[in-house]
Design brief:
The protein has a 9-stranded mixed sheet, with helices on both faces. Strands 16, 17, 19, 20 and 21 form a 5-stranded antiparallel sheet that branches. It is α/β, with parallel strands linked by helices. The relative contact order is 0.09. The termini are far apart. Helices cover about 35% and strands about 25% of the residues. Helix 8 (about 205-215) links the parallel strand 9 and strand 10 (about 220).
């Protein structure tokens, strides 16, 4: 049951419809996209790639991203999506751990990719989609789609969690089928009048959900810039109509507050699907006031892609509901086909209103972590995925989050894992102890702040700490402030109390004696 067939069904139904646009310009019909994907699949096979091999994709949003994804599945290959903003050491780890035999990228990223791989470059072939070598891959005769097993890995998504090194969530063809079917069932009508704008990274939810749109004959529109820019998006929405796009809450806020919003022909906007972090109620109300009932919230994890719970358009619009504001503060109800519980430390369900760990079960839950049996055993229990997120259920079955993977920081829709940043800072010879927390930020949702205890004889050195981060992790992960303190607050067992640090941060003046 190859996930490619989810797209292939649409090829038979709408062969001459445009499936993919580059800005206003048609890029490929369904039939042409199918042909290009199977030609590219044959070209990848001629390079020596075989079913089951991993292929990394590291690039910004572009039309080639979609045909590469489809080509990999057609050839029975497993995709390893990589955030193009990562540090060379970070994406080198992902490529090395996954054993990716090829990486599709762009010429602008190839140098840093080669730098990150260093001596391992020969084990992973680098192909740039904007250079002639890529075009030559299409000279091969289109191949028949490989009949993959439904349990084969189709999408190997690396998510760090809170324990250091990234882990690869093994997402199977079956997982992706049920993810797409659930999205089609829950998100409202998708048809040939729908146009999905690719403004959030295709390496994440936006790229995965694209196939669900194509399955229903909808078209994808990739802005010429490849990113999120209301100046560019609003003319596209007005032109195409039936427009949908996935966005982090901070992107929704920027869209609504943009000076260009007055030019938007609101009826041409169908839905904004938002997720990846909490939306402040005030921002939600402003978006509803500006756009009308066009918001649809999604809560998911890399381990169960895009699929845990949702807050529908109808729920966003039900202002006469007695618990309207509480609903807006929630992440909604369980998705179709998903079982959802809040449990205590012994995995026993908790009563309504009590905070505990969120666990989920369903056909979208990953097979396990790539070559990491210990982590898999910790995350999967009797078919249930332990999300690590804390929350509670209300009497209506609506889920409200209380914390995201305990100390996980979500800034602008991107996950920042404190342990990862702390380990880098700890490598500085002058640092004795360090703790990183997220503090509220009006635009980004949260920003990382580092509380640092220096060794005796070492002066506070924010510049040198900043340099250590720049040399080892992506820029968006580095702390935005360094607060130097004499001691970190701890409990009787010596554990650092980050709740206390958050209290410090909330008070006026962060400097401590």
């Amino acid at each position: 049951m190859n996930f490619y067939h989810c797209f292939g069904h649409a090829v038979g139904a709408w062969p001459q419809r445009t499936a993919l646009y580059a800005g206003h310009r048609p890029y490929a019909t369904f039939a042409a996209l199918d042909l290009r994907a199977r030609q590219l699949a044959a070209g990848l096979v001629r390079l020596g790639l075989a079913p089951g091999d991993r292929v990394a994709i590291m690039m910004g949003n572009r039309c080639e991203y979609t045909e590469i994804m489809l080509a990999c599945w057609a050839a029975g290959l497993c995709i390893v999506p990589i955030n193009a903003k990562l540090h060379p050491r970070e994406f080198a780890y992902v490529i090395g751990n996954s054993g990716a035999r090829a990486c599709l990228t762009t010429s602008s990223l190839a140098e840093s990719l080669t730098e990150g791989l260093c001596g391992n470059a020969l084990s992973c072939r680098i192909l740039c989609c904007d250079l002639p070598d890529y075009a030559r891959l299409f000279a091969a005769e289109p191949m028949a789609v490989v009949e993959s097993d439904s349990a084969d890995c189709a999408w190997l998504f690396y998510t760090s969690g809170t324990t250091g090194r990234p882990k690869g969530a093994t997402i199977t063809h079956r997982n992706l089928w049920f993810m797409s079917l659930g999205y089609i069932a829950d998100s409202g009508p998708i048809d040939t009048r729908t146009h999905a704008l690719m403004v959030a990274p295709q390496s994440h939810a936006a790229g995965l959900l694209l196939v669900a749109y194509l399955t229903r004959g909808a078209a994808a529109v990739v802005p010429e810039s490849g990113g999120f820019d209301p100046v560019e998006m609003i003319p596209l929405i007005n032109h195409f109509g039936g427009a949908r796009f996935f966005a982090a809450p901070t992107m929704v806020k920027r869209f609504v507050e943009s000076p260009e919003i007055g030019a938007l022909e609101v009826p041409r906007l169908d839905t904004i699907v938002y997720g990846g972090g909490p939306m402040y109620i005030a921002d939600t109300l402003r978006a509803l006031d500006t756009l009308g009932p066009r918001l649809w919230q999604i809560y998911g994890q890399g381990e169960t892609p895009c699929t845990i719970s949702y807050l529908s358009r109808e729920m966003h619009a039900a202002s006469d509901h007695p618990r309207f504001l509480e609903r807006l503060a929630s992440v909604g109800m369980a998705r179709t086909g998903i079982s959802l519980r809040v449990v205590d430390e012994d995995m026993k369900p908790l009563p309504v209103g009590e905070v505990g760990e969120i666990i989920v079960r369903g056909e979208t839950v990953m097979r396990g972590y790539w070559e990491n049996a210990q982590a898999s055993a910790g995350a999967l229990r009797d078919g249930w995925l332990r999300t690590g997120d804390l929350g509670f259920l209300d009497v209506e079955g609506m889920l409200t989050l209380r914390d995201r993977s305990k100390d996980l920081i979500i800034s602008g829709g991107s996950n920042i894992y404190p342990r990862e940043v702390e380990e880098v800072l700890q490598s500085h010879p002058g640092v004795r102890e360090v703790a990183v927390i997220g503090v509220p930020h009006p635009e980004w949702g949260e920003e990382p702040v580092a509380y640092v205890v220096m060794h005796a004889g070492h002066e506070p050195a924010a510049d040198s700490l900043e340099q250590v981060c720049l040399e080892n992790i992506a820029r968006f992960k580095r702390p935005k402030r360094y607060v130097f303190v004499a001691e970190l607050p701890k409990n009787n067992y010596g554990k650092i109390l980050k709740t206390e640090l958050r209290t410090w941060a909330a008070q006026e003046g962060d400097d401590r004696p």
